[in-house]
Structure formats: C-alpha cells, structure tokens
Amino acid sequence: MNEFVRAPIAALLTSLLVCPLRSQQAAPLPPLSPAASEIRAKVNALPIGGKLTVNMIDGKQYCGNLQSIEGEAFSLREVDLKAVVTVHYEDVKRVRKNYGRPGFSGRRVYPRTNRIAALAVLGGLMALVFALVLSDKS
Description:
SH3 type barrels; 5-stranded antiparallel sheet; about 140 residues; single chain; rod-shaped; alpha+beta
C-alpha cells in the first residue's frame, strides 16, 4: 500500500479503538439514604474475604465473609446457610466486623458480647464469694 493511504487508515483505526474506552467510564453510584450510605462506607472499609455480621431491619442476621461489593448491594458467603447472600444497603440495620460462635439460641453471638457476658458472670461469682466470706461468723 501507498504510504499516503496507510497513515490515514492507521489514524482512523486508532481513534476507533480509543473512543469506546472513553465512553466506558464507571457509572456514578446511585443515591442512597444517609443510613444506607453509612452502611456502604462501613462495608467498603472491610477487605474482600473479611468476616462480618449483618443485622437486617426485619430481624434476620447474616454472618459470613464478604464476597463482592456492588453499587446498591453487597454479597457475602453465609457460614451457616453455606450460600451466597446478596444484601441491599437499604435493608441493613447494622454491619459489624467479625462474627462469633453459635450461642444457645442458635444465633451467632458477637465476640464482644461473649466477653462482656463472661466478665459479668465472673464478677457475680466474685461478689458472691466475697459476700459469703464477709458473712462467715466463725
């Protein structure tokens, strides 16, 4: 081919390759309520694969590992259901990092709650022993 024909064809093909890349920019995130925006910020702060507990507005609780984050929802691999659950930010009441073991009721108990309960029981036992020692009249 002639050098004068090759240059315009190359320029045309280059511009056709660049134009679709410019038009494929990320779409802006949809507007959310202030509470849902706060939940989105907390979820975005967690690493993919990180443990989390999600309390829903309807009372359900999901515990698992964060799998993906989208614009209006996020997905987690639920440890008890052994399934991927997609949760919308608008339906979430509370998100916490980490999850605990199943408690007596079958629901997972958050680790900090376990520690607080253990300290309360130990404190009660110590108070009982202290009261028994003080009331001993021997």
